[in-house]
């Protein structure tokens, strides 16, 4: 149908135009010729609008993750390149992944894993500003681009995210947590790759500290996002 319908539309439009041309030049039937040409113009306008609508829809789909509805890897990188290219201003990049996601996904199944990712996406969207960009990079890793923000802004968002994640539960009824990393342009990097690497290093360092605390018999909550956020904000003010 996707091939036949456009072809049929073109044929009908061509035949209508030909009928208008014959009515005008051979039959000298100007009312019929005018009607045919008007029909052609109307059809062309409708086809142009349909084309624009389809183009917008394809553009939207190409920039969004089909599972969660947030932006995808492509959208994140396009926005990062734009933010670091022309007349750059300071902004923050926050990267997070869901703790224990692999365990939950393997133990309770992919449907439960997908549900958890959708819940995390909802939490992120509900807690960011309208100008922020939420994107799923892949798997259980998400990023948030915060225009005109700094370490303190990223720290405030991290606290809100942690508090909001605590309100939902995974399949094993354990509270949902995430490890978070942050990078700020331009001091942490001048390119999207540098910023993503810095945020990812922060994220991995937090995850390792939590794992070490747990294996050492300590309280895993000792290295909470809130503590990290407080330290980050204090460092930025120093």
Q: Structural class given helices, strands, pairing?
A: alpha+beta
Total beta-strand segments? 4
CATH topology of the largest domain: Alpha-Beta Plaits
Question: What is the helix/strand order?
Answer: HHHEHHEEHEHH
Over the alpha carbons, how many angstroms does the gyration radius reach? 27 Å
How far apart, in Å, are the first and last alpha carbons? 64 Å
- In CATH, what is the class of the largest domain? Alpha Beta
- Overall geometric form: elongated
CATH architecture of the largest domain: 2-Layer Sandwich
What number is the mean pLDDT?
79
Q: Which stretches are poorly predicted, pLDDT < 50 over at least 5 residues?
A: none
- The percent of residues in helical segments reads 55-70%
Strands ordered across the widest β-sheet: 2-3-1-4
Number of helices: 8
Q: Could you tell me the strand content as a percent range?
A: 5-15%
How many distinct folded domains? 2
State the fourth-level CATH superfamily of the largest domain: Reverse transcriptase/Diguanylate cyclase domain
Description:
By secondary structure, the protein is an alpha+beta fold. The chain folds into two domains: 4-62; 73-237, Reverse transcriptase/Diguanylate cyclase domain (Alpha-Beta Plaits, 2-Layer Sandwich), CATH 3.30.70.270. The chain is 61% helix and 12% strand. The protein contains eight helices and four strands; from the N terminus they run αααβααββαβαα. The chain has helices at residues 4-25, 30-62, 73-85, 101-108, 110-127, 151-165, 192-215, 225-237; strands spanning 91-98, 133-138, 141-147, 178-185. Strands 2-3-1-4 form a four-stranded antiparallel beta sheet, sandwiched between helices. A hairpin with a 2-residue loop joins β2 and β3. α6 packs antiparallel against α8 (225-237). The longest helix has 33 residues, at 30-62. It starts with a helix and ends with a helix.
């Amino acid at each position: 149908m996707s091939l036949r319908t456009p072809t049929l539309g073109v044929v009908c439009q061509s035949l209508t135009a030909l009928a208008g041309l014959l009515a005008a030049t051979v039959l000298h039937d100007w009312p019929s010729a005018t009607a045919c040409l008007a029909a052609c113009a109307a059809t062309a306008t409708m086809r142009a609008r349909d084309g624009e609508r389809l183009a917008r829809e394809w553009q939207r789909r190409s920039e969004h993750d089909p599972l969660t509805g947030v932006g995808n890897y492509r959208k994140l990188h396009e926005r990062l390149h734009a933010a670091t290219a022309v007349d750059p201003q300071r902004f923050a990049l926050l990267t997070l992944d869901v703790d224990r996601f692999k365990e939950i996904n393997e133990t309770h199944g992919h449907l439960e894993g997908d549900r958890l990712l959708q819940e995390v996406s909802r939490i992120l969207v509900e807690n960011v500003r309208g100008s922020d960009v939420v994107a799923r990079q892949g798997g259980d890793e998400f990023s948030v681009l915060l225009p005109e923000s700094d370490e303190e802004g990223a720290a405030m968002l991290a606290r809100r995210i942690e508090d909001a994640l605590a309100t939902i539960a995974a399949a094993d009824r354990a509270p949902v947590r995430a490890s978070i990393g942050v990078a700020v342009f331009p001091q942490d990097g001048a390119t999207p790759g540098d910023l993503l690497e810095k945020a990812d290093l922060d994220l991995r360092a937090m995850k390792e500290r939590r794992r070490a605390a747990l294996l050492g018999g300590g309280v895993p909550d000792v290295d909470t996002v809130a503590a990290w956020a407080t330290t980050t904000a204090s460092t930025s003010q120093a």
